[in-house]
Automatic annotation (TrEMBL):
InterPro entries: Bact_response_regulator, CheC-like_sf, CheX-like_dom, CheY-like_superfamily, Sig_transdc_resp-reg_receiver. CDD domains: CheX. PANTHER family: PROTEIN PILG, STRESS RESPONSE REGULATOR PROTEIN 1. This is Two-component system response regulator. The modification 4-aspartylphosphate is found at residue 55. It comes from the Bacteria. SMART domains: REC (SM00448). Residues 5-120 form the Response regulatory domain. The lineage of its organism: Bacteria, Bacillati, Bacillota, Bacilli, Bacillales. Keywords: Chemotaxis, Phosphoprotein, Two-component regulatory system. The keyword Aminoacyl-tRNA synthetase does not apply.
């Protein structure tokens, strides 16, 4: 089990001692504890833990308000509720407040460790995806072009896309769903698109609709192959594709995704092609 830095939020010295013993015996570092909302704000800001265990009943506040305070400081901190109370309404409210796990007192060591492992594993899986996806999508774009046109693609530039940008003329966007959601976009000029599709079809496209349909299928192949490779690396990704969307026009502005994406610009025999892809961390689901 990966080590993590933990803050315990509970107003009972007995409960704090029990939870601390379980955590420290299993290699976790308890970096602080808190029993009020004010203490939560102070300790979380000062220690920036990986994870917080959260009691639901606290003087002058409750676990949900304290959870919101934790996430206001750092939304990536995982919160696991440890409470004597557990019913459908409380569980519903906990999920709505982005809690990563919920166990009932008296604390069972195995149950607590399993909840922590699940929360930590989510971060580890996302980190693995973040390390892998750019190169995998670049390779499947390159491989798809080679297979379908017997030509090469050479990447000349790669950068994080942080603003809206003006399309070259045609953009194909495919949503990606699974444990993490994301977006693939392939952007190219109308002339490049026409020449590329002609090479793929080994004949001149009959009309612009045939060009966009072929590009949508190419993007779908690129995204599907990349997701298959990533899923083979880690089945937990569970990546799947949404149907492609195609946009085209003169001076078309493409909105920046609400999460980190990376653009790679490639030179081909048909012109310049931009690949843009990214994933967002999202929230783990628990039952």
């Amino acid at each position: 089990m990966s080590a993590a830095r933990v803050v315990i939020v509970d107003d009972s010295p007995f409960s704090i001692a029990v939870i601390r013993n379980i955590l420290e015996e299993n290699g976790f570092e308890v970096v602080g504890d808190a029993g009020t909302l004010e203490e939560v704000n102070q300790v979380i800001a000062a220690t920036q833990p990986d994870l917080v265990t959260m009691d639901m009943t606290l003087p002058g506040t409750d676990g949900l308000e304290c959870t919101r305070a934790v996430h206001a400081i750092n939304p990536n901190i995982k919160v696991i509720v440890i409470s004597s109370m557990m019913d459908d309404e409380i569980l519903k409210e906990a999920k709505e407040n982005h809690v990563s796990g919920y166990i009932q007192k008296p604390v069972d060591a195995d149950e607590l460790l399993a909840a922590i492992q699940k929360a930590i594993a989510f971060e580890e899986i996302y980190a693995e995806l973040e390390d892998e996806y750019v190169e995998v999508f670049k390779e499947t774009l390159k491989d798809g072009l080679n297979r379908m046109t017997k030509t090469l693609l050479t990447y000349k530039n790669e950068y994080e896309l942080t603003t809206d940008f003006e399309s070259r003329g045609i953009a194909v966007i495919i949503g990606i769903i699974g444990k993490f959601s994301g977006r693939l976009m392939i952007d190219l000029s109308k002339d490049t698109a026409h020449a590329l599709v002609a090479a793929m079809m080994k004949k001149e496209p009959a009309n612009p609709n045939e060009v966009t349909a072929a590009l949508a299928e190419y993007a779908n192949i690129v995204a599907g192959n990349a997701c298959s490779i990533l899923n083979r690396k880690n089945k937990a990704f569970g990546l799947r594709l949404a149907p492609p969307s195609i946009m085209h026009g003169d001076r078309m502005l493409i909105s920046q995704a609400p999460f980190k994406t990376v653009s790679a610009v490639g030179d081909t025999d048909f012109g310049e092609v931009l690949l843009n892809v990214g994933f967002k961390r999202g929230e783990d689901k628990w039952t």
